[in-house]
Structure formats: structure tokens, C-alpha cells
Amino acid sequence: GEVAGAVESCLPRRARIDALFNVAGVSGRKFGDGPVHECSEEGWEITMETNVKSVFLMCRAVVRRMLEQPAGEGGLRGSILNMASALAFSPEPKFFATHAYAASKSAIIGLTCAMAAYYAPSKIRVNAVAPGLTRTPMSLRAQQNPDLLEFIKTKQPLSEDLIEADDVARAAVFLLSDDARAVTGEVMSVDAGWRVSR
Predict the structure, then answer these.
(1) Which residues make Cβ contacts (< 8 Å) with residue 157, sequence separation at least 6?
(2) Is the overall model pTM greater than 0.90, yes or no?
(3) How far apart are CA 163 and CA 158, in angstroms?
(4) What are the tens digits of pLDDT across the range 106-155?
(5) How many other C-beta atoms can be found within 10 angstroms of the C-beta atom of residue 73?
(6) Per-residue confidence at 12, pLDDT binned at 50, 70, 90?
(7) pLDDT tens-digit map of 23-74
(8) In the chain, where do the E strands start and end?
């Protein structure tokens, strides 16, 4: 019901929905996420429910709306962007052994690619952005760990620190905008070199 309400609340202000950015998510660590042999069922379920089911529900509601609306000026019906993570394809076992979180972000990438292939003929683009460790309230634990901060100097060599949220936001704006009108099915890494470093 909340998803339908959110979508419906947009329509009085605008006649259409041009873009959706699925950015909400959690780290399940406080609920018991961890290495798979230690991960609690609650940690697994809460992480998957929050990070994956929410994306599915929002995409379903918005795609239904986009399919009903005519193409816009650029010939497209809309653009969807999903928040993934560098941990989906570049694991880090020492500091980030949260396997439910990694699985949830991998699931988002799989959903993104499947949707991109299916909805391209309907002129709906679907992409994902995969940040490295970013300075947000969710990363506060990491920001206070001196050992992790030292590790990040070489894991994210472009910044030698956490990435600023604005760097991720700029990539998101590009992927949602008409400047990326020929881009779909992509997972853009915004990770200051995480994926290509040791």
C-alpha cells in the first residue's frame, strides 16, 4: 500500500513518472548479517526484504505506470536506477563479511539486467550504480574504525578515503537523465578504484 501511495502522490504534481531511483537500503549487521555460517535468519530476511523486495515493489509499480504513458520528448517512457554496491562483485572479507548484504546487492544487479533487456523495446531504461565505501549515516561504523580507514587508503586509491555522497549523486543524475538516453543494462562503478585494487 505504501508503494502505491508513493506513486499516486507523484501524479497530481506531474502527469507522468520519468525516473525512479531505488536508493533506500540497510546493512543487516545489527540484525545478524555476517559470514554465512554466522548469519542469522533474521539478518538474512531483513536485509533481503529491505534491499531487494523494496526495489521489486517500486519497480513493479513504476513500470506499470511507465508502460501506460506515452514516450516523452526524447522517445523514451522512463528511466530506472537501482542502488547496488561494489560488494556485489568485489567482496572484501576482512571488514565487510556481510553475506546477506552482498547477496542482496547481487540480486539487484541481476534484476536490473533482466529488466533492462525486457523493457528496452518498451523504451524504458534500467541501470544500476555500484558505489564503494561512501560517507553516509549508514557507514558511520566504518568511519570510526582506524584500521578500516587505513585499509581504504589503498582500496579506494583515487580518494584515499570514503567517497563523498555527491560523487555517487552525480553519476545517478547522469544515468537518469537524457544524457544517458542510449544507456541501459549498465552497472556503473563509482568506487574510487575499489574494484580494480587489491
Answers:
(1) 192, 193, 197
(2) yes
(3) 9
(4) 999 999 999 999 999 999 999 999 999 999 888 888 888 999 999 999 99
(5) 6
(6) confident
(7) 989 989 999 999 999 999 999 999 999 999 999 999 999 999 999 999 988 8
(8) 19-22, 78-83, 124-131, 134-135, 163-164, 187-190
Catalytic residues, by residue number, are 101
pLDDT at 13: 80
Q: Render the burial of 138-172: b for 16+ CB within 10 Å, e for the rest.
A: ebeebeeeeebeebbeebbeebeebbeeebbeebb
- Name 78's bridge partners: 124
- Is 143 in contact with 152 (CB distance < 8 Å)? no
CA-to-CA distance for 38 and 87, rounded, in angstroms? 18
Alpha-carbon span 36 to 33, nearest angstrom: 8
Distance, C-alpha 129 to centroid of its chain:
6
Question: Using an 8 Å Cβ cutoff, are 129 and 83 in contact?
Answer: yes
The radius of gyration of the chain from alpha carbons, rounded to an integer in Å, stands at: 18
